[in-house]
Amino acid sequence: MAGAFSFKGCQKIRGPQIRNLLEAKDFFLFDCDGVIWHGENAITGAAKVVNALVRHGKNVVFVTNNSTRPRENYVHKFSRLGFADVMLEQIFSSSYCSALYLRDVVKICGQVFVIGCEGLRRELQEAGIPCLEETDDPDATIYDCALAADVKAVLVGHDDKLTFLKLAKASCYLKDPDCLFLATDNDPWHPLSSGRILPGCGSLMAALEVASGRKATVIGKPSRFMFECISSQFKGLDPSQCLMVGDRLETDMLFGFNCGLDTMLTLTGVSQMEDAQEYRNSDLSTNHSLVPDYVVDTIADFLPAFEELEEESN
């Protein structure tokens, strides 16, 4: 585990321990769904925590694998839910980072075939990445549809309008070994408030991996690339001064581990304490990278520490 706190290792922290952590860290990375909000409802106390961190001179960014909306929509949502002055530059989504990867890393020359929502396309277009337009007749099949000659990448994101034709066309483009195969993230599913689940990008990616016989390069968490995007914007960023706060062990905690960050699991989302303890007690060493350094019930547990600090400063 990174850091030097004696109480670390999948143990709940509170009170003085949280205060020590807040004083020791300068940079806080938050997942959004299950940490900051549930759908259109902010987690109780989350806005106060984020606002207090900024008031105390801490840097705050939001790292989300949700590729369905452009970053400007997130800015509006933060404002709507009571978060003060969250700016575009603080938001790192898997769709935005995918656009940066295509533009700045591989310097794509050609079109991108996108399996994803309009929000993903908008991020690509704003970065100047040409996306192949869907112009197929509703009755078209893979036997008679047109295939573009200049597709240089296939990018898979969340797509609630996925069709068999999209999957088949993507598989055809990926027959070219020079065509990149990218995925915004590998989240397998997402919980819905009704108790049902929504298949995630990871499930679509897996179908295309089987169909194409290729493995996708994942851009979002738990890949390091998202942290590289943050580091390029915040020069001199020291991983030892960062805390990654998330609700999913297999993405958020593994992302923190991969990037050398201390990690905190909040129990307001997908993963629970029992899941973390199971990974901690596993005989499989790779499972230990999914174990959080710290656990809190909710990020609202930060608030008493801030209240103490503010009382002392008065």
Automatic annotation (TrEMBL):
Residues annotated to bind Mg(2+): 31, 33, 247
Cofactor dependency: Mg(2+)
CDD domains, sorted: HAD_Pase_UmpH-like
Organism: Oryzias sinensis
Record-level GO cellular component terms: cytosol; plasma membrane
One Pfam family of this chain: Hydrolase_6
Location of this chain's protein in the cell: Cell membrane; Cytoplasm, Cytosol
Family indicated by similarity: Belongs to the HAD-like hydrolase superfamily.
GO molecular function: metal ion binding; phosphatase activity
Cofactor note: Divalent metal ions. Mg(2+) is the most effective.
Entry membrane topology: Peripheral membrane protein
Keyword vocabulary terms for this entry: Cell membrane, Cytoplasm, Hydrolase, Magnesium, Membrane, Metal-binding
Binding site for substrate: 190, 221
Predominant place of localization: membrane
Residues the record marks as active site: 31 (nucleophile), 33 (proton donor)
Name assigned to this protein: Pyridoxal (pyridoxine, vitamin B6) phosphatase
